[in-house]
């Protein structure tokens, strides 16, 4: 099972982000996710700024991150919130 550190390393290697923040929100949702073989990380929020997102739509950015984490999703990453931006774009964070 993947940890946030493993996920962070993968995103860094694939997207070479200018900024990257991973927030593991799994504990906040433990009461409603009772899968006996659940991975360590079940709910994750990703905030990422990368030049790889230049010219991509919001949907294409989300697809790219989802593809990067396809293994984790298949292994039980239950919820993934993605906030992706290109350098210079305004973010809420």
How would you describe the overall organization of this protein?
The mean pLDDT is 89. It is built from three helices and three strands. It has one domain (4-85): BolA-like (GMP Synthetase, Chain A, domain 3). A three-stranded mixed beta sheet has the order 1-2-3, with helices on one face. It is elongated and about 40 Å long. It is α+β, with helices and mostly antiparallel strands and 93 residues long. It starts with a helix and ends in an 8-residue tail after the last strand.
Provide the fold topology:
Blueprint: H1 4-15, E1 19-24, E2 43-49, H2 58-68, H3 70-74, E3 79-85
Parallel strand pairs: 2-3
Antiparallel strand pairs: 1-2
Q: What descriptors fit this protein?
A:
GMP Synthetase, Chain A, domain 3, 3 strands, single chain, alpha+beta, 93 residues, 3-stranded mixed beta sheet, elongated
State the total count of DSSP E strands: 3
The N- and C-terminal alpha carbons lie at a distance of 29 Å
Fill in the CATH topology: GMP Synthetase, Chain A, domain 3
Q: Compute the gyration radius: what is it? A: 13 Å
CATH class: Alpha Beta
Give the neighbour order of strands across the main sheet. 1-2-3
Structural class: alpha+beta
Contiguous runs where pLDDT drops below 50 for at least 5 residues: none
